[in-house]
Amino acid sequence: MADRPIKELNWKTPLEAARKPSLNQIAKMGICGIMDPIAPGIPPGSDTATLALLGYDVLKVYSGRGALEAIGSGINVLPSDIAFRCNFATVNEDLVVLDRRAGRIVNEDAAKLAESLQKIRLDKPSIEFLFKNTIQHRATLVIRGRPELSTAVSDSDPEKVGEKVSEIKPLDESPEAKRTAKILNELMHKFYKVLKGHPLNKKRAGQGLPQANIILCRGAGTIPNIKALPELYGITAVCIAATSLIRGVCKVAGMKLIDVKGATGTPQTNFVAKAKSTVQTLKTCDFVLLHVKATDVASHDGNIKQKVELIEKIDHMIGYVLDNIDPDSTYLAVTADHTTSLMTGKHEGDPVPIAIAGPYVCRDDVEEFNERSCAKGGLNRIRSMDLMPILMSLLGKTKKFGA
Amino acid sequence: MADRPIKELNWKTPLEAARKPSLNQIAKMGICGIMDPIAPGIPPGSDTATLALLGYDVLKVYSGRGALEAIGSGINVLPSDIAFRCNFATVNEDLVVLDRRAGRIVNEDAAKLAESLQKIRLDKPSIEFLFKNTIQHRATLVIRGRPELSTAVSDSDPEKVGEKVSEIKPLDESPEAKRTAKILNELMHKFYKVLKGHPLNKKRAGQGLPQANIILCRGAGTIPNIKALPELYGITAVCIAATSLIRGVCKVAGMKLIDVKGATGTPQTNFVAKAKSTVQTLKTCDFVLLHVKATDVASHDGNIKQKVELIEKIDHMIGYVLDNIDPDSTYLAVTADHTTSLMTGKHEGDPVPIAIAGPYVCRDDVEEFNERSCAKGGLNRIRSMDLMPILMSLLGKTKKFGA
């Protein structure tokens, strides 16, 4: 949601350009500030940004995106598992990448191919793997077994069209890294063989669609070693989000995941359904994270008009929440997990606006929710990892340090 | 002193509601900001809050309250000693706590009982103990000896009326923890035997007063391993405070303790006597910490009117200091060690206001000393542990980091 001022909006940011009475209302009622996702100038990933928002010190606990995405996709990742993010992709006979997303293959086709891949048996019976497609070309892979495996392996994904698929290499001298690289290369080769000869790919070729004839993997990771929110604060916590990664982060943080009909993690998501679910959930639960992916998608695509419209839809969603909760017993915090610039199409290291409204909050004189107004607010400049302690302190859920 | 906005004060904080020309004068003359005692949202104890105010990184150096309180009570605590906070309390025949404060026993009675307890001999002659009453029901206990002792032991204080006194248990598998727990249980039992049969308790029973028939102990700690302020900055430093804990922290920080007649650590303390002593001390000394406990007491009691009045008394005290120092050669910093909420009666993790006045300070346009105005000040948001380096830098006492 957060962005930089742009010429097309008369040097306003999308938040400044959008009509957003409900977000402004929270700013007016509450205390505002700006917030560095990790530290000033450091662009976060969606994984680190969300972990930080939940109060974790990502510089200490982050252990890769793969496992978070895999958990979000429904795989029960164990602490000793190694997980990867994968793409269905298209290569030619020389293994040169032609399309990193296999024409954004539809979920149904990806699911059929994934099913065939899961039937593969590895040479080492002590090692097993779990492969699961998520949305379109995206998938996750988990490697499990004994003896121990390592995350110190390179990617097979060259992350560029026109380059050859990379051999996976150990990144240190440990026997674990060498073993893991060997297993992965074997698996990638077997995936390729199965996909190449798969009837579905023959059918796609006939339809003029790019074949999903290889799996590219990247970002070896494990689950982060963190204490869950219920344990840390004695709260019940719920996540309302559609994207696997956010769901994975929240699950690792001990939050319950709720499925909302029509919530898709895309600009076409059902905003009001998410708002209704939030209001309903707040009746029985201490903490709800309501996450919207859509503005990030529009920003990556450089779609100015769509981003402004999506902010207005988010505002409408927040309006529903505002109208249907008890303001005397509920705290509302609105913010962005990070800045995605419409101009660069990338995550940026800028601070994001934050507003917190609720009982006994030290209200300031900020009247609008955006990057510039909130910078004048009573919170001054905090970090994303400070937000949870601040909210939990308002709820009376933090433990005193000292006596 | 710091607090949240409350309904009874028209959604002002006590600092906003109080008449405080002198505190405002410092804000006007100086640079203001807000300050997190430890980190945003983390409620500090009085011990960690004061250590942080003196510039120490409590997340690294904090080692429990017991030893700080014991030092403040006048016991010369050694680095290998284990110290506890204790209460004289009242139990029934089944060791169920009836009154955790033995009817807030008066100092004179507590002193007599403490004298009898100190005569007890332990089975192990290599271990000795020091027991000292401080104010009313409060006392400190120090265990000393060889072989080594451990702080990894539980409390005997159940911290709740109606519950049974707890057996002290080792909190880890070390022989030191087991040994320490055993010694303490023996000592607690001997304390109980002496108190139960003490003539003073018979007399109290006759007067209808709760018997102080048991000692409850909690918060095993050692002295923190920190460098003293004179060593760190080459300054002479003095503490003007009445409460044992604050005195203990300051002593550990290498500060000289000054006794002021009429300073009691209560709302009835002699504010002007403390101000006079401060002015006098500043004539020969680089740094004086003038500490007032009273507003914290009023906050814990939820006494809104008293808190506002006490802030006005503090303002009067500060006025005396302002009128009697040389403003061209003296820096004045006013702040709170933490927020104690009148509503929750507890320490909260909110930032506190801070104002620093003196030569060459980069004066801002804040005109009032309170939580909201100071948030707009030129210091922005700092942490308590930043204050000493800032003051010492103004005094030219900090060492360059780098070359």
How would the blueprint of this fold be written?
Two copies of one chain form a homodimer.
Chain A: H1 14-17, H2 21-29, E1 31-36, H3 46-53, H4 58-61, H5 66-72, E2 82-91, E3 97-99, H6 107-118, E4 127-133, E5 138-145, H7 175-196, H8 199-206, E6 214-221, H9 229-233, E7 237-240, H10 244-252, E8 256-257, H11 271-282, E9 287-290, H12 294-300, H13 304-324, E10 332-335, E11 339-340, E12 347-348, E13 352-357, H14 371-374, E14 380-383, H15 384-394
Parallel strand pairs in A: 1-14, 7-8, 7-9
Antiparallel strand pairs in A: 1-13, 2-3, 2-5, 2-6, 4-5, 10-13, 11-12
- The topology string of helices and strands of chain A comes to HHEHHHEEHEEHHEHEHEHEHHEEEEHEH
Greatest interface: A-B, 26 and 39 residues
Q: What would you report as the Rg of chain A, rounded to the nearest angstrom?
A: 22 Å
Helix content, binned percent of chain A: 25-40%
Number of domains of chain A: 2
Number of DSSP E strands of chain A:
14
State the separation between the terminal residues of chain A, measured CA to CA: 41 Å
- In the CATH scheme, the class of the largest domain in chain A would be Alpha Beta
Individual helix count of chain A: 15
Task: Name the quaternary structure.
Answer: homodimer
Level-2 CATH architecture of the largest domain in chain A:
3-Layer(aba) Sandwich
> What fraction of the residues of chain A are assigned to beta strands by DSSP?
15-25%
- Major sheet size, sense and barrel closure of chain A: 5 strands, antiparallel
The named CATH superfamily of the largest domain in chain A: Alkaline Phosphatase, subunit A
Kindly name the structural category of chain A: alpha+beta
